[in-house]
Design goal:
Layout: H1 2-27, H2 33-42, H3 51-54, H4 63-79, E1 104-106, E2 115-119, E3 122-125, H5 127-140, E4 159-160, E5 163-164, H6 165-196, H7 201-230, H8 238-276, H9 282-309, H10 314-331, H11 333-348, E6 356-359, E7 362-369, E8 373-378, E9 383-387, H12 388-391, E10 397-398, E11 405-413, H13 419-435, E12 445-451, E13 456-464, H14 469-490, E14 505-506, E15 511-512, H15 520-545
Antiparallel strand pairs: 1-2, 2-3, 4-5, 6-7, 6-10, 7-8, 8-9, 11-13, 12-13, 14-15
Length: 556
């Protein structure tokens, strides 16, 4: 019995000490930001509910208005998911905000209207906060806070995992309603998104899936926002409500990131279509790189915003990332050099996709320009990867940018060719160049140029207006064929380096072995007939080549 008395006395003593401690903190309510917030929240808890004492955190208001302001502000904090960690509140009387340099304290940087201020030597909720409380309450609870009064029956007040039965019912109904809203919105958004995108028939197949995905993402984004808008009326316990509000906020931001990336994808589809109409093929290669860079930027900015929303000190984080980025850049100099090399290639445009380029020992056609390297298909059909940092510093001979393609060769004829035929032959070659459809008519050279060891050498120097290597080879074929035909018609023989025993006459064969030259008038007539045949040949070749697929891809 005696021990029982001691036990109850000890319980009474501990209760009195706890009450005395609360009274001590209450006496120092306005000394620090900690005291103001602690007093406000402590006396609005179910176990210590006393709005009169909670109102001491406010100044300049009649008692009734101060009590109402305390209750409404507590509901705003709970509804917005602003869970206040008491242990992180400043306990310094002379606390000063580090950013503004003033004696104020923000409960949450994302809610600039809710803060404390020091007046003379005492701390209170600011006048700005007091004036904003009614509007903040309407914003947080657009449907009011009367829903809980509809479920006052004891059966609805039964708690399961800290959540009352009527709140469980509200969560289930909210989940079902959000699913229905998403289903409706996703179907309403599809035609609307297509109309806003100006979707045309030629883009329908390519953009159908991206637009449907965009419509679903916008539907999810709006649904999450509506759920966050309605959630406060359930008046869940502060910690749970704070978790749900943060989770919905993060989910909403992720959907925003996905929506922006999807818009980037759709926008770049139109840019790709426009790029195909330009002559510069490097645009087609640049767009995917720019799109990837934009997506990385969108994700980086989105992650930073999410971290800031979760209360992470983004400024310190960015400072750390900057130092880490510098260290990474120093450790990966080649990667950084290649990245900037690709930027310089895209800006300067020394070549395009399909150009035949030559540098060092590399000779081939450009297939792709990536972020790190450029792929070149050699004429041995192998694939060469060249780092862009290395390529940007090399002297590149772009054969694909030639306006004309040169053809220089020597035509060797025998020493026994009569002088008259030489002039007819060279003039005939000039006429061949003039009548060919792809030759440069204002600049070419055809002349008897040198005496060789076994031949008379005629210089042929000319140019083709050929956009590809295949066109150049076709032009060479035409010119060489025409020259051979002209020589055959004129009786001119091509020489080759040999040593022969020259016998002027052989009695057994009845005369000289040297072909008898044509008379000048006969040679001129034959040349005219030959050139007419060559013109007809060129015309027929041009008609036959129209519409044919080129046999060698690229500009070579």
């Amino acid at each position: 019995m005696r021990h029982t008395k001691y036990f109850f006395f000890l319980i009474f003593l501990l209760s009195w000490l706890g009450h005395a401690q609360a009274q001590i903190e209450a006496e120092e309510v306005n000394r620090t930001p900690y005291g103001v917030v602690y007093n406000h929240l402590y006396y609005l808890q179910p176990d210590s509910y006393d709005p009169v004492l909670a109102a001491r955190s406010f100044r300049g208001l009649p008692p009734a208005e101060a009590r109402e302001a305390a209750i409404l502000l507590k509901q705003v904090l709970d509804g917005k998911g602003m869970y206040i960690d008491i242990h992180r509140l400043p306990e310094q009387t002379n606390y000063v905000d580090s950013l503004s340099g003033e004696a104020i304290y923000y409960l949450d940087r994302h809610e600039p209207l809710i803060y404390l201020e020091k007046v003379d030597s005492a701390w209170f909720y600011s006048r700005t906060t007091v004036r904003a409380i009614p509007d903040l309450h309407k914003e947080t609870y657009p449907f009011g806070t009367q829903l809980s009064t509809w479920f006052q029956a004891p059966a609805w007040q039964v708690g399961v995992l800290g959540i009352k039965l009527w709140q469980w019912l509200g969560l289930v109904l909210l989940l079902l309603a959000s699913g229905l809203v998403f289903w409706i919105l996703s179907r309403l958004m599809r035609p609307l998104v297509g109309r806003l995108a100006g979707l045309q028939a030629r883009h329908m197949d390519a953009l159908q899936k991206p637009l449907n995905r965009l419509a679903r993402l916008i539907g999810l984004m709006i649904t999450v926002k509506l759920v966050a808008y309605v959630l406060p009326i359930l008046q869940l316990i502060p910690r749970l409500n704070a978790i749900l509000v943060k989770a919905l906020g993060v989910l909403f931001l992720f959907f925003v990131i996905f929506v922006v990336n999807q818009i980037v994808t759709i926008g770049f589809h139109y840019l790709k279509v426009a790029a195909k109409r330009t002559e510069n093929t490097l645009d087609d290669q640049l767009l995917p790189v720019v799109m990837r860079v934009l997506r990385v930027i969108v994700w980086a900015l989105g992650i930073i915003y999410i971290l800031d929303f979760l209360g992470v000190n983004v400024t310190a984080l960015l400072a750390g990332i900057s130092l880490g980025g510098l260290a990474l850049a120093l450790a990966a100099q080649d990667t950084v050099k290649n990245f900037f090399g690709s930027i310089m290639i895209f800006i300067d445009k020394p070549f395009q996709i399909g150009d035949w380029i030559h540098f060092d020992d590399v000779d081939g056609v450009v297939e792709e320009v990536g972020v790190r390297s450029t792929r070149i298909r050699t004429f041995a059909n192998s694939l060469t990867y060249v780092p862009n940092g290395y390529l940007a510093n090399k002297t590149i001979d772009n054969m694909g940018l030639r306006v004309y393609r040169r053809f220089s060769t020597t035509i060797s004829i025998t020493y026994d060719t009569p002088p008259e035929l030489i002039n007819l032959f060279t003039e005939g070659i000039r006429e061949i160049i003039r009548v060919h459809p792809t030759t440069r008519k204002d600049y070419f050279e055809v002349h008897l140029n040198s005496f060789g060891e076994s031949a008379l050498n005629i210089l042929l120097y000319m140019f083709f207006a050929a956009p590809t290597w295949t066109d150049e080879l076709r032009g060479r074929h035409d010119i060489m064929y025409a020259i051979i035909k002209l020589a055959n018609d004129l009786g001119i023989r091509f020489a080759f380096p040999t040593q022969t025993l020259h016998i002027e006459e052989l009695p057994s064969l009845g005369g000289s072995l040297t072909p008898k030259p044509l008379r000048p008038d006969e040679a001129a007539e034959r040349r005219q007939d030959s050139l007419q045949g060559i013109k007809d040949y060129f015309t027929n070749r041009e008609h036959d080549d129209q519409g044919k697929q080129k046999t060698f891809g690229g500009d070579g």
